[in-house]
Recover the amino acids of this structure.
């Protein structure tokens, strides 16, 4: 499933990276500790986080994530947006909490269990 | 043994704005050399954590990258406070990071551990009030 479908099905807002929505989403990872995300997330993951500062862009870029999903309606900070646009990393936004959106994403990618 | 690539990347202490810039550069450099993606990811994580350590704790430092056909070597050096108790610093979850650093999602006490996990050989030496040195070696398998 690509990012565009995830955006549509989970009703996400695209803050930037419209051009990268064809990227496949292979999985998801939720975390706010950058070292944890670096160590444990995988390529192609949609990274769910409440961190909206610019350092998330380098982490996501290094791990080749499909994109970043900000929770609880958090907007990316101005310099986060600038960096993400430069690196071509899609940033999406949901009003839901990490728990809620992670559950929905998991169900969407892996089906009801 | 022929050297494929050698480059030195300076890192400024306290410069959180650009944290990850050097790691991204190192990853791009290795990618151009056609390094296997899994090796690439390990090197990128080790580079990132090293860079963030310099930014978080030292005045300045550098990451020296040396790539041979069979290995990636990163020598990290900083001028900073040094580490008094290396064994303690290596313990997962132990951190001396400030609240400000933690709020950004850094300072989880996983940096050095992550680096060690990503390396095939890892050495750390430190002198209090002078600085810290890391030697990170990652083997590149044939092919």
């Amino acid at each position: 499933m690509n990012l565009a479908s995830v955006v549509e099905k989970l009703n996400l807002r695209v803050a930037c990276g419209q051009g990268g929505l064809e990227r496949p989403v292979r999985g998801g990872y939720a975390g706010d500790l950058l070292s944890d995300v670096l160590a444990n997330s995988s390529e192609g993951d949609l990274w769910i986080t409440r961190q909206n500062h610019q350092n998330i862009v380098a982490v996501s870029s290094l791990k080749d994530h499909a994109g970043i999903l900000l929770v609880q309606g958090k907007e990316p900070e101005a310099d986060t947006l600038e960096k993400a646009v430069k690196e071509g990393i899609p940033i999406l936004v949901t009003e839901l909490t990490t728990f809620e959106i992670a559950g929905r994403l998991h169900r969407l990618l892996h089906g009801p269990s | 043994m022929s050297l494929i690539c050698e480059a030195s990347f300076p890192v400024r202490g306290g410069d959180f704005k650009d944290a990850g810039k050097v790691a991204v550069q190192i990853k791009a450099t290795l990618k151009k050399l056609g390094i296997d993606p899994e090796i690439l990811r390990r090197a990128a994580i080790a580079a990132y954590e090293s860079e963030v350590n310099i930014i978080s704790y030292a005045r300045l430092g550098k990451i020296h990258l040396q790539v041979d056909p069979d290995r990636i070597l990163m020598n990290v050096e900083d001028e900073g406070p040094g580490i008094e108790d290396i064994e303690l610093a290596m313990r997962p979850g132990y951190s001396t990071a400030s609240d400000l650093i933690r709020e950004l999602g850094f300072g989880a006490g996983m940096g050095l551990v992550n680096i060690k996990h990503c390396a095939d050989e890892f050495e750390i030496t430190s002198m209090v009030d002078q600085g810290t040195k890391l030697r990170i070696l990652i083997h590149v398998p044939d092919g």
Remarks:
- The interface with chain A takes residues 16-17, 19-21, 23-24, 27, 37, 41, 44-45, 48-49, 52, 104-106, 108, 110-111, 114, 117 of chain B (CB under 8 Å).
- Chain B is about 35% helix and 30% strand.
- The first strand of chain B starts at residue 5 and ends at 12.
